[in-house]
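Possible regression after last week's pipeline update?

I re-ran a chain I had predicted before the update to compare outputs. Posting the input and the new output here so someone can diff against the archived version. Not blocking, just want to make sure nothing changed silently.
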Amino acid sequence: MRGRRAEFPTIAEAARLIAAKQLSPVEFARALLQRIATHNPHLNAFLTVTEKHALAAARAAERAVIAGRKGPLLGIPVGYKDIFETAGVRTTAHSRLLADNVPARDAETVRRLTEAGAVMLGKLATHEFAIGGPALDLPWPPARNPWDTRRFTGGSSSGSGAAVAAGLVLGALGSDTGGSIRLPAAYCGIAGLKPTPGLVSRRGVIPLAPSLDTVGPMAWTAEDCAILLDALAGHDPADPASVPGPGGSYAAALSHGIKGLRVGVVRHFYERDVPAEPEVRAVMASAERVFRDLGCSVADAVLPPAQEYNGVGRVIISAEAYALHEATLRTRLADYSRAFRVRVLGGALIRAADYIAAQRRRTELIAATAAAFEKFDVLICAPTAATAPMLSEQRPDDGFARPMLTTVANVAAVPSLVVCGGFTKAGLPVGLEIMGPAWGDATVLRAGHHFEREAGLRDTRPTL
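New output (post-update):
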């Protein structure tokens, strides 16, 4: 549960210490590797720890610092969800089907962070092929929530959420098709950004549903996510889904205040569509007050029901995931986890007419969401209806049997940030979701950054 802030910095703080030669990248990497050795057996956040690789990269970063090089990610320890390809390092997608898969090249996002001087500590747990849900019939156990190890981390970027929350890494990469960055951010009390589709390259990331897949940063604060996004964003000509973004520094944009920002509260999402628990509603009410105190105008906003976004998302995800795995499912069905089979095999029953209808309805939902941003600069809502559930209570069909509030932003093709919005009386974190218009990633991060500073929630870490 809750504890005092651990003695390690955020990315922004560590960068300043490293630049001032007050923090050695090598000693910092060693300290976190020891922390991983101590706590990972209880958290299962890492599938692979790359100690030799990390120390070599940390030494290179230290030499660069001595030579006078500076950079916001130079010497910063990070981890990668195990669907991001890493040259010479096993990339399993948390599946026995890829247990021996060693890529020859880095994913483009990994390459960019490495070029910026980040130090990879290892590969992080996910759910099988980023959809399977927590499963006990795989070679590696599911990640556990650092706030209470009996509880779910959220998924599918489960190890990324746990590792950041536990202070095993300062930043991580995750993927988000229906909420897989933002659910772990909410349940683990960290920040996670699902960027505008096309802003960050997906080349070298094992796909789930290409129509909806995005990749993005996860860290302790919105500021740290902005620092990571500065390195990640940018056109990748080798990725056909990559689109030139607006440019500029996301971290630098945080210095501008948010007085006068028009904040829309999508209240019906968490009061009627997917009714939230009272403590979640209390956190949302508190968030509204924080934005008003910051000088924002706050009013209710209305979108189509969350169930419509979810219906579209589930048809697309099921059909595309099944299509990607059909050949292997025919020959190695038993090698997949039960949770994966429950979630994906239904895609075999989706007709082309159903899939096309879902894509057409998605176009209408994108337009309806965009219309809301003519009145508001950002929309806020609860990303989850409750705090992290017990791992033992997770159903294989979870996310299909009931709507997820995070899927809205995927279907609507807009950027969405989750930050820690507060805590329950039991000390569990509750997330706050902030959505913006397409290419409004900078505004979303700025709103999240100023909310965090005003709310004063970032000094509390889980007690491990």
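Follow-up from reviewer: compared with the archived run. The chain has 15 helices and 13 strands. Marking as no regression found.
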